[in-house]
Structure formats: C-alpha cells, structure tokens
C-alpha cells in the first residue's frame, strides 16, 4: 500500500480546486442537543452534481496524459458516479462513456445525458456491467475509472475531509457513510496524515454491512441482500481501498433502516437541507452511540443530496 505525505494530499486538493465547490460546513444547535455532542456537517450535497464523487472523478481524469484524455474515460454506475464522471469529463472536453444497467432510474440516465455522458445500457448484473465497460475500453482505447476502487479517485474523495479539517483541526472523530469504500478510505488517509488524535469512523446499514464484516474477517466480504433505503451504499469494498480502511479506520457502526429514516427526517426538518438516505446513515450512527460520542466535536460527511423521491417511503 502506497503512503502519502501532507504535500501529496495538498497537491491533490490544489489540482482539483478549480473544478469543484468548497462546500459549506453547517451546524444545528437542536441536533447537537439531541445528540449531546457538537456535529459539524460537511455538506457535499452542495457539491457539483450533488455529491462528493465529483472530487474523485475530476482527479482521476486530471492524472491522465493528454493522449489518454482524448481517448476518453469509461465507468459503470447506476447513479452518482455516472453523473460525476460525465460532468468532470465535460469540464475538460474529455469523452465519457457510461455503462448503466437498464434498471437505473430514468432521472439518473437523463442527468448523465445532460452532462454529455455517452450511455451504453446493459443487463443489471455486475458481470454484464464489467463486460460492457471492458468492450468500450477495447474498442475506444478509453481509460476505465472505477467509482471507488481507484487510488486517484480515493485521493480526490479525501479532499472533502481535508477542507473540513482545515477549518476544524481539533475534531475528536470524522464519521462517514460506507458504500464502495472510496470516501471513507480517502477520509482516513487525510485524517491520519493531518491530525494526531482524530478517529475515522464508518457508518453502515445492517442490511449491507459488508465493510463491518470485512474488518472482522480480514477479507472483502459480499452482501447477500441489498434491502436498504440507503441506495448509495449497496456496493462493496475493493482491493485498493480495503487495505487503507483496515489500517486507518477505527470502527464501523451499523444502523437499522428505522434509525436511518429517523436521522433523515431530522436533517430534512431541522437543517432544511435535502440529503440522500446514505448521508443520514452517519448521523444515525452518532445518535445510536450517544454515550460514545457524548460532549465530543465530530465531523460528519454528508455524502450527497441526490434523492429519487419516487423511491422513498418514510
């Protein structure tokens, strides 16, 4: 596993700065009162395309040679990363080939088209997604960019935590949702390099608790079901991010579907911002373990705000 210095991580941030928003850090005195701690919400729901994934996508493309950029980039994604890679590529005049399962919501397909992403649909299995993406790599010479298991993507995602720590250097911990592992791995790298006492903690639904089980078993586990409202967390860890998570993440807290819904309503009603259910998983974890977090200063990464309201039943 490669190691990264402060300079390395600051360079990543400088590289992508012209293409991203520095998102706000919000607080809620009422939520702090309920949680019995001070929470600083790093709001990536205000990022371009509405999620932190823009950071990793733009960093990955910027690291390609001019020749490779001209050939384009390809990924497979049913949602946020499809949009992130499309808008990042568009801002650099790079072709973006997006493999999307036929079952992906039309609203997400439309968003990708808006950002000039070139969609190829395939049957909704991981095997079909990978096979279709590989064919585009072979035919076009495009570079495959994985949504979460790519070191340049991971480093880009870590810049959200970097901005948080630059403003709030004395946090006791940073809590992030865990899906494919890109956000928490990038966060853990930054927290490890830039702080002495801050912990990195993950939050995950019981229904898709592969990361929790992977830390216990020491190998990448899969999920048997994906029955969770937190649709952005249904993916699994990869060989690039898992070693980082093993080394630098202190713990992962699992939460129930009801706990996620309660946290989601709390953010919507009290903070007056729209966040996706995956983001609420982090607050649900803090509320579940109130004794552990009592009187602490906590950074919480709101991963995104792309909500398909047709799919939500609260």
Automatic annotation (TrEMBL):
InterPro entries: TrpB-like_PALP, TrpB-like_PALP_sf. Residues 17-304 form the Tryptophan synthase beta chain-like PALP domain. Keywords: Pyridoxal phosphate. The keyword tRNA processing does not apply. Its cofactor is pyridoxal 5'-phosphate. Pfam families: PALP. It comes from the Bacteria. This is Pyridoxal-phosphate dependent enzyme. It comes from Zunongwangia endophytica.
